[in-house]
Amino acid sequence: MQKEEKIVSILLVMAALSLVIGYFGFSSQTAVYSSDSKIGERVYVEGTILSKQMTGKGDNLMLSISSLNIKVFVPKDKGAKEVYDSVKAGDSVRITGKVAEYKNAREIAVESAKDVVRL
Questions:
Q1: 51 in a structural domain
Q2: Second label for 117, Cα 20 to 30 Å away, from 13, 43, 88, 106?
Q3: Is the dihedral of CA 28, 32, 33, 35 positive or negative?
């Protein structure tokens, strides 16, 4: 390969990598939850915690939020205990998670304790 061909090849590879990084880095925008949100979509909600309850089996956490008619599920291995200790009923929060379905009911599944932020 000539020097110019090597430079062009390197530039093409760099351009392709930039497109890949741009696609994966910026395509996962978080939307506000609505009834139109799709299963698996990353969403957020803001509201006041009405109640919090650890499940009888598995030590998972269920939250009820004032702004919507959907439960928020925090799995044990995703920080349920940490979230339980850090928030209380009446706290204003912003919660980010993925729309999921459990027993034919929608819920927002939190992926990390850091996704529950007090406002």
A1: yes
A2: 106
A3: negative
* Beta-carbon count within 10 A of 105 CB: 10
Instruction: Divide the 119 residues of the chain into consecutive groups of 10 and give the mean pLDDT of each group.
Output: 87 88 69 90 93 89 87 94 94 95 93 93
CATH of the domain at 92: 2.40.50.140
Q: Are 83 and 58 in contact (CB under 8 A)?
A: no
Number of separate domains in the chain: 1
d(CA 119, CA 112): 17
31 pairs with which residues across the strands? 43
In a domain, 95, yes or no: yes
For the chain, first and last CA: distance in Å?
Answer: 59
